[in-house]
Amino acid sequence: MANARLTGKAAAHQLDWDESKISRMLSGKRPGSEVDTAALLALCRVHGEERNRLLSLARDQSTQGLLRQHGSHLPKEVAELVEHENLAVELINYEGVGVPGLLQTDEYATAVITALPNVPRSEIQERVAIRLARQALLSAPGSRNFTFYLHEFVLRLPVGGPAVMSAQLHKLLQLSVRLNITIRVLPAELGAHAAFCGSFMFLEFADFHPVIYLESDTSSLFLEKQEESTAYRQIIASLAGNALDVGQSRELISQVAVELYADGDDHYDLT
Predict the structure, then answer these.
(1) Per CATH, domain 66-261 is 1.20.1070
(2) Residue 263: pLDDT above 80?
(3) pTM of the predicted model, to two decimals?
């Protein structure tokens, strides 16, 4: 609206709407219909790709749950995930195979993405850069909390080789002492567990219902229904009851780092 030099009051007057309607739409507290969104975009002189993107979001918001199929190319839906992450007040992530993207080192991310056969070689560095850029969220101002549940297998899978894994586990130890980050390990001896069906991200918001994010090689899925949130809350509760506590998890990460990846001279401090 700034580009169109319009205040909310002026826009409401021209569209014959209540000022509260404009305010709620702009703040995200009230989703606008596709027709209302089109009218507001026209008034604000928004055209081209940006107009199409915003109208697409207006159409999508009426559907609970969202499947995004992106094939082998860099998914534009990454932008949607970033938007969700930026709005969330709490983020809970379970990973059973690899280190979560928000915690990966450059070398670890490169090794993971390079190993994916459906990723065009020309996109590897771009995908790594996007993944690393998302990590700024960990230090962003605000009261956002992160909880990561990692299966013990994640620590022992030699992604990229000993040097890469050594640096990656060191980074986990460093991040684990931040006040807004909790890292807990699910021990292998537990056997079957509540998150056996796969990795997920649970995003909690101050003003909206939770969203569960699932990802595969060719699609991204955002779950929003209440019964889905309830199901994943039960999974999270079980993980919380069975995972090692923060101190025990840190000890295990350090132990694996020394046993499998250290060269004998490495010292794993938390600074």
Answers:
(1) no
(2) no
(3) 0.73
